[in-house]
Amino acid sequence: IIKIIDLGKNPSLAEDYQISVLPTQIFFDENGEPFEPSDPEAIPMKLNFIRDSREHVFTIHEGALTKDQLLWALKEMGME
Predict the structure, then answer these.
(1) Full-model pTM
(2) How far, in Å, CA of 62 to CA of 45, rounded?
(3) How many of the other CB atoms lie within 10 Å of CB of 73?
């Protein structure tokens, strides 16, 4: 599922997910868990953690993605 969120209508999400660049993509797997790419440098992604527990809470990519980059990420997440 891909959702587009209008931050003008949902400004608290920008704070919750530390969004400072548009567009920003946030990746979760099919179970709602943070996406863990096999190579976070293949397309620059930031893995965000809770500071104290080091729990991985979400993964983001800032800026535009090419079609190939998006397909790579979706394939990594199990899409055929």
Answers:
(1) 0.79
(2) 7
(3) 20
Sign of CA dihedral 10, 40, 1, 49: negative
Interval 49-64: pLDDT, tens: 998 999 999 999 999 9
> DSSP H helical segments within 1-80, as ranges?
11-16, 67-76
Q: How many CB atoms lie within 10 A of CB 35?
A: 22
Q: Quick one: which of 79, 73, 80, 78 has its CA closest to 25?
A: 73
**Distance (Å, rounded) from C-alpha 3 to C-alpha 25?**
10
Q: Are the beta carbons of 49 and 55 closer than 8 angstroms?
A: yes
Q: Coil, strand or helix: which one is 36? A: coil
* Cβ atoms of residues 35 and 56 within 8 Å: no
The token pair that represents 46 in the structure block = 């930031």
